[in-house]
Design goal:
The protein has 512 residues and is of the alpha+beta class. It folds into 3 domains: 161 residues, D-Maltodextrin-Binding Protein, domain 2 (3-Layer(aba) Sandwich); 107 residues, Dipeptide-binding Protein, Domain 1 (Dipeptide-binding Protein, domain 1); 208 residues, Dipeptide-binding Protein, Domain 3 (Dipeptide-binding Protein, domain 3). Helix 8 runs antiparallel to helix 10. GO terms for molecular function: peptide transmembrane transporter activity. It comes from Actinokineospora alba.
């Protein structure tokens, strides 16, 4: 991820100075939340963001502000629901053939901001742009199973995708990050045209994007007249701007801020549970964690409630060493692991690891990772092991820990369990940090994604998760809430996990 110089609070206030009266709706003394939606007004949303080189190309979206702006202006064929399963959006429905190698998508009747209809040709052109081998779009890996040469438009509202292999989870690909539909032939995004709930008005790179209501939106016009994204990279700047009435929405606040201002009459705290998993990753292909007894000992040494309380200030839930708590197919019936020092000490002796010092690589690349590593190192004391916390370069951390070391801090946002497995746990996965390589596990994945019956497919995912829980390398100790703050007169902000359909979804928000 590219890093840009941050704006100070003074710089942020300079951006918001001089806004029109329309932009100041509800910004003085907050009023009580209204029971029914009200139309009108401008909502100003503060995000950390890019710099002067940022663009509005939705296929280049990477930062949270870019994702939020893209979903305001554009649509995908599908998006992820609250349980992180794919839900139809521009696709009215989808239907596979018998062997799951061809999928027919029916588009709903929607129009772009210039009044032209969204057609099957626009879908194919958008995916062809993403899959262009000369480009480096993030969504390319998600769409790579499409055989584009043999895919076709049946008519203006029907597209048929040919796949390279049977894949029952194809809707997950349609919902993947960055898979937005743009008009055929679009390359200039200085004044972007999408089909989303808001249309473009103006853009100052690194500072502000102003959008207006799309009255022709297929799901109904937004309540707001205008939506403005403003950049404030420092969390304190976003918080103070909200408290001072310069914005009505502040994205990505810390648990400490939420705890300090939760009872404030100038701020409402909105939490999105299960938005980010917090973990330690152990590599199975090298000492010392090629020994399953030592891995089990590490699982039993973790005091998960203490990690959640201390690192997340209570803004989260304990984990059970499995990804996707609360998501579709999550194996919630597996008993919760708890700390057991005596059993851990026995397993450490059995592994011949008593007296060993283990390096735990961590970084400030994600909030709370260094703190969690330090707390875990303290929890391990008295077990016969010593954890040495090593803080690395935040700019190269993820690439470094993918290859090097034996144990590292890990964090991930929400995604379907199938996507997590495909990206991180197959022998061929490009980001397999734990080096979990099991041919029988790979075979189970192929069985799951080629099983049409949902109940039978769920049973296969459950078997895979039992294997990971017993022998895997992820010590997933907690699931963090995503936290935003709003002015007291803002309603309709959803509590869906970050990166899902209803996260940062401003067409359903209104000012009281």
């Amino acid at each position: 991820m590219t890093h840009f110089p941050e704006l100070s609070r003074r710089g942020f206030l300079a951006i918001t100075a001089g806004l029109s009266a329309a932009g100041l709706v509800g910004c003085s003394t907050p009023s009580a939340t209204t029971a029914a939606p009200k139309a009108g007004g401008r909502l100003r949303a503060a995000f950390a963001g890019g710099g002067a080189k940022e663009v509005l190309d939705p296929h280049l979206a990477n930062l949270f502000v870019e994702a939020a702006r893209s979903k305001a202006m554009f649509d995908k064929l599908a998006d992820l629901g609250a349980d992180v399963s794919a839900q139809p959006r521009l696709a009215e429905k989808w239907e596979p053939n018998g062997d799951l190698t061809r999928w027919r998508i029916t588009l709903r009747q929607a129009v772009f901001h210039d009044g032209k209809p969204v057609r099957a040709q626009d879908v194919l052109a958008s995916y062809a742009r993403i899959l262009d081998p000369k480009r480096a779009f993030r969504a390319k890996s998600s769409l790579s199973l499409i055989d584009l040469a043999n895919s076709k438009a049946i008519d203006d509202r029907t597209v048929e995708f040919a796949l390279k292999r049977p894949f029952v989870e194809f809707p997950n690909a349609l919902a993947a990050f960055g898979t937005y539909i743009v008009p055929e032939g679009t390359e200039d995004f200085t004044k972007p045209v999408g089909s989303g709930p808001f249309s473009f008005v103006s853009f100052e790179p690194g500072k502000s994007v102003l959008l207006k209501k799309n009255a022709q939106y297929w799901e109904g016009a937004p309540h707001l007249d205008e939506l403005q994204f403003v950049i404030a990279n420092e969390e304190s700047a976003r918080t103070n701007a909200l408290l001072g009435g310069q914005v009505e929405y502040a994205h990505d606040l810390t648990p400490t801020t939420a705890r300090a201002h939760g009872a404030s009459d100038r701020m409402t705290i909105v939490r999105s549970p299960n938005s980010a998993v917090q973990a330690f990753a152990m590599k199975l292909d090298r000492a010392p964690f090629n020994n399953p007894d030592l891995r089990e000992a590490m699982f039993l040494l973790a005091d998960r409630p203490q990690l959640v309380e201390s690192t997340l200030a209570g803004s989260g839930q304990i984990g059970n060493d499995l990804f996707g708590k609360g998501s579709q197919y999550y194996a919630g019936d597996i008993p919760q692991r708890t700390r057991d020092l005596d059993k851990a000490k026995h397993l450490i002796r059995k592994a011949g690891a008593e007296g060993m010092t283990i390096k735990l690589d961590t970084s400030t690349a994600a909030a709370g990772m260094v703190e969690a590593a330090t707390i875990f190192a303290d929890q391990v004391k008295g077990s016969g092991l010593t954890i040495e916390v090593v803080t690395g370069n935040k700019d190269t951390y993820w690439a470094d820990t993918l290859k090097n070391g034996s144990m590292s801090s890990f964090r991930s946002g929400a995604m379907p369990i199938e996507t997590h497995i495909a990206q991180r746990l197959l022998s061929t996965s490009g980001t397999n940090v734990t080096k979990w390589t099991r041919p029988e596990f790979d075979a189970l994945y192929q069985k799951a994604v080629s099983t049409a019956d949902e109940k039978a497919r769920g049973a296969v995912y459950a078997e895979m998760q039992r294997s990971l829980h017993a022998e895997g390398g992820y010590l997933m100790w907690g699931f963090a809430d995503w936290i935003v703050g709003t002015a007291r007169n803002v309603s309709g902000v959803a509590t869906a996990p970050a990166n899902t359909l209803d996260w940062a979804r401003f067409d359903k928000v209104w000012l009281g």
